[in-house]
């Protein structure tokens, strides 16, 4: 009989287990994951044919990414609303302390807060969202999580490449896997967004109701590297928010001198940003302008994403690119126009007409946003700016939990993104630390 079984060995789970082992060195804990150990996660993901792709699955979950920890309540989830803003910031501070004590401290943190920029932006309808950032990069992030694993491995049991077939409760919990059945007093689900389908099944079996579901879609912009210089003078990057008449839009994943790469998720291919530390500097800056939509269910949100992105992909991983001037003139970009474009694309994409591929709301949002940015920087956005269709961010629906992330089933907890409350590394990790205190 274990004291706690944690299903999922991603970011939130690791921080929870770390804290549990500090608070209760003698507690018996089992962590189960459907993926591999961290050092065995070698697939690069780009067009791979893995049945279960290593890129997102296995120890550290999506922590094996660029490892950009944003310590803020301004974005990245609703942890502040759930546990109080001050409390959330305290938990995120603790997350950063853990990261630093496991090797992340060699990467300095920076702040994007800039009161003068915020007040100028406001005059043009833009809100500046600010954060403290520790951007580890994939290599350092992987090292930090490996160090955490080495430490945890001395205190808790792990089960990798395991299928959890059933979670049920009588007096205690019973977790049936393809490697045997394990019993425990408490169970924590931390399967992130990669465990979405599994969660759907298990929620139904456990009688947990999933609420409405959010889906962000947005055009990824690739502009001249110096175009936002006046905004970025004092901050390496920024996050801007625009409230339109029937939409809200926020910039995401801004990469000065970065590149655009293909992101594979849920069988779909999307243009994603990569920072300059990963594959060297480009002359360009890129970001996505995400516009959120709330759907009645996760199924409806996924169907919409399949319809729009699947339609663009045409079953061959197609991504569309269009010059800003061509979008304004309502004409498709041609191969010749792309060849002559002064801003060189860092992603090989198919030239076309975004208006034929993307719902009007996203086109309106990007054009109105770029107009506000033009006013803010006091110069025209280069008409050779490239616009790629279309990036997406998927969210898990919220499931009812109390202030300690405990569900209506006593002793069953949801932490990280599968709770629907967090959407970022820092908030997912913080939710793990916070719930560990209660458990
Ligand atoms: C491409 C990409 C890049 C991102 N980059 C950033 C970033 O730079 N900064 C940022 O703040 N946020 C980023 N995010 C979001 C961030 O990674 C997540 O919010 C965070 O990792 C969530 O942590 P988690 O513990 O909830 O889930 P995860 O870290 O995803 O962990 C979930 C774990 O559950 C396991 N699992 C899934 N299903 C099962 C199952 N059925 N049985 C057993 N185990 C299972 C998985 O193997 C995984 O280990 C990114 C997201 C994506 C998709």
Question: Any overview of this molecule?
Answer:
- The chain has 439 residues and is α+β, with helices and mostly antiparallel strands.
- It has 2 domains: 2-108 and 134-210 and 399-438, FAD/NAD(P)-binding domain (3-Layer(bba) Sandwich); 213-394, no CATH class.
- Helices cover 31% and strands 27% of the residues.
- It contains 13 helices and 20 strands.
- It has helices at 11-23, 79-83, 85-101, 115-122, 137-152, 196-206, 229-232, 276-279, 298-313, 324-328, 335-340, 360-377, 425-438; strands at 2-7, 29-32, 68-71, 110-111, 126-129, 132-135, 157-159, 164-169, 173-177, 180-189, 213-224, 239-243, 248-256, 259-265, 268-274, 284-295, 320-323, 350-351, 386-394, 412-414.
- Strands 5-12-13-16-11-19-17-18 form an 8-stranded mixed beta sheet. Strands 1, 2, 7, 8, 9, 10 and 20 form a 7-stranded mixed beta sheet that branches. It has a 3-stranded antiparallel beta sheet with strand order 3-6-4.
- Helix 1 runs parallel beside helix 5, helix 1 (11-23) packs parallel to helix 13 (425-438) and helix 3 packs across helix 13.
- The radius of gyration is 22 Å and the shape is globular.
- The protein starts with a strand and ends with a helix.
- The mean pLDDT is 94.
- The structure holds flavin-adenine dinucleotide.
- Flavin-adenine dinucleotide binds next to helix 1, strand 3 and helix 13.
